[in-house]
Amino acid sequence: MLTEYHCHILPGIDDGSDSVETSLKMVQRMYDQGVRRIVATSHFYCHREESVAAFLEKREAAFRALMEAGPAVKDIRLGAEIAIEHGVSETPGLQKLAIEGTDLILLEFPYRKFEEWMEEEIDNVIAKYDFTVIVAHVHRYLDYYTEDQMDNLVNLNAILQINNEAFENKKEKKLVKQLIAGGYPLIFGSDAHNLKTRKPNWDLVKKKADPRVVERSDRVLDRHRIV
After folding, report:
1. Mean pLDDT rounded to a whole number for the chain
2. In the chain, helix, strand, coil percent, each to 5?
3. Which of 152, 186, 192, 200 stands the most exposed, by the fewest C-beta atoms within 10 Å?
4. What angle do CA 132, 187, 64 make, to 5 degrees?
5. Does residue 62 register a pLDDT over 70?
């Protein structure tokens, strides 16, 4: 079952879909590209949100509006793309932002020079909640981190999420190939925000990735299901 692990299809909650209509079209395009299961990962910034509870209320309203409109893909799981900030691991209710029904939680590093406190926040999240951390679009940090820092990043106790777009960039594709060859735990996502500049692009993965690697990605969600 082709699984989309990272996208912004919920209407009006972040810088992704701007309406239910756009959301329906994004989901339909994913469906046409073979996606049958979607994890909706709206942005969560602890310094912007009143609380986790307030965020969840907004997310639920957006999700309900989408589902009532009848999206092509019915199996949509809720999660969040959580920005790593100072103290994020101490955010009350953080555990409620894990991908529903799993111990998986998606974290996004800042787009700036790597600092040790960032890794400490990840370690704290793992220790406090016993989560399995997913590092969002790991290839995007190539322009910010040194080679040693990238090596440290990919060797964290975490699953590495790859945006499908990485297969179109020579440097990023090289990293993905190295990760695959090294047997690192990988999952894929479009990180789609809209229908034009950041659109669903599962055709790239289907065309350029080894089907066996994609199948392993698809199985991750079920392997981390909480019974």
Report:
1. 96
2. 45, 20, 35
3. 152
4. 80
5. yes
